[in-house]
Design goal:
Distance between the termini: 17 Å
EC number: 5.1.1.1
Largest sheet: 8 strands, parallel
Pfam families: Ala_racemase_C, Ala_racemase_N
CATH class of the largest domain: Alpha Beta
CATH architecture of the largest domain: Alpha-Beta Barrel
CATH topology of the largest domain: TIM Barrel
Helix content: 25-40%
Strand content: 25-35%
Enzyme class: isomerase
Keywords: Isomerase, Pyridoxal phosphate
Shape: elongated
Number of domains: 2
CATH superfamily of the largest domain: Alanine racemase
Family: Belongs to the alanine racemase family.
Number of helices: 11
Oligomer: single chain
């Protein structure tokens, strides 16, 4: 194969164990496998989570992901965090029968989900999402009691959880504390109205590490399941192992004379005779064009710079200082060769983005190999 991603299953399990230790045995560990498991492959990562004794539930973003996991014979409860289409009767019926858990943040969802539960002859578990200051999905705190009352009035719904999402727990302690206080006040108002909520969760990877608040009964661990840190602040607090590496093979080696221009637009001009390796990877594969003339790959354990613009399916690398390079040799885009490494964090700096985006955008058609 020309290009592939390797995923270390032991690293995934190690990271999950680190978080289970962090939150304690009495709290639910709910890894997030949305967006193709942050680029790692949703079905295989879900299977790893399903067989991990420390994992209690698995979180996805929508009904399509949930349905895929149900069809893949995932047994642990699946929670849909964001959106679903109640008009797709077959899918919703199947998810209800599989005991999927649904987020609720609109009044119409309550009526629709109750109808699904009635048809499937089950009581669907729902978690009420409250917007505590992130400005995404969620009912406003002022409406939370009313919506909770409406949920518990339904014959085929069970209000199992209340949840929200931190906006800046990686960096902003003051705003994180403010959001936490809004959530706690909202939960207290609902319970004062006589509605008990067994599960409360707001913690993501960063807040689980930086703000271990005992008031929550579950943690949704996304990015750090895969061994990546959401910010520099979490690195001293928890040891993680990156699970993903990304590799390709050289398809051509050639030497060009001084003054040669490389790739579209001629953005790089050789200052001396230059030896290039052409790689079958480009921005279609998720290797971002913004890293042109900036990024480095590893070939024979040495760092080799990208020269010229990254193309749709190709990029060129300067191997002038590396000896005995030939077609078929492995080039590592993310990972380690010898004493050198290139991390997703480093690619994020080169691309002026975040490590989430680097791994999320690796083309899902690229084969994933699980070790």
């Amino acid at each position: 194969m020309h290009t592939w991603v390797e995923v270390d299953s032991k690293a995934i399990n190690y990271n999950l164990a680190q978080f289970k230790k962090k939150i304690g045995p009495d709290k639910l560990l709910m890894p997030v496998v949305k967006a193709n498991a942050y680029g790692h492959g949703i079905v295989e990562i879900a299977k790893i989570c399903d067989s991990n004794r420390g994992v209690n539930r698995i979180c996805v973003v929508n009904d399509d992901e949930a349905f895929l996991l149900v069809k893949s014979n995932i047994k642990k409860p699946i929670m849909i965090l964001s959106f679903y289409d109640c008009s797709d009767e077959h899918k919703m019926y199947s998810l209800a029968k599989a005991d999927a858990i649904f987020a609720v943040y609109r009044d119409d969802q309550i009526k629709l989900l109750n109808k699904v539960g009635e048809k499937a002859n089950v009581k669907i578990r729902v978690h009420l999402k409250v917007d505590c200051g992130t400005g995404r999905i969620g009912v406003l705190p002022v409406d939370a009691v009313r919506v909770a009352q409406k949920i518990v009035a339904q014959k085929n719904l069970q209000l199992e959880g209340l949840w929200s999402h931190f906006a800046s727990s990686e960096t902003d302690k003051i705003y994180t504390k403010k959001q936490h206080e809004i959530f706690q006040k909202t939960a207290a108002q609902i319970e004062k109205a006589g509605i008990k909520i067994p599960i409360k969760h707001m913690a993501c990877s960063a807040s689980t590490v930086l703000f271990p608040l005992n008031q929550y009964t579950a943690a949704r661990v996304g990015l750090s399941t895969y061994g990546l840190h959401p910010s520099q602040n979490t690195k001293p607090k928890i040891n993680l192992k990156p699970a993903l590496s990304w590799h390709t093979r050289i398809i051509q080696v050639k030497t060009l004379p001084k003054g040669s221009k490389i790739s579209y637009g001629g953005t790089y001009t050789a200052k001396a005779p230059i030896t290039l390796a052409v790689l079958p990877v480009g921005y279609y594969d998720g290797y971002d064009r913004s890293m042109s003339n900036v990024a480095e790959v590893l070939i024979k354990g040495q760092k080799c710079p990208i020269r010229g613009r990254i193309c749709m399916n190709l990029c060129m690398v300067d191997i002038s200082k590396v000896k005995n390079v030939k077609v078929g040799d492995v080039a590592t885009l993310i990972g380690t060769q010898g004493k050198n490494s290139v991390s997703a964090d480093q690619l994020a700096k080169w691309a002026n983005t975040i490590n989430y985006e680097i791994v999320d955008r690796i083309n899902p058609l690229i084969p994933r190999i699980y070790r």
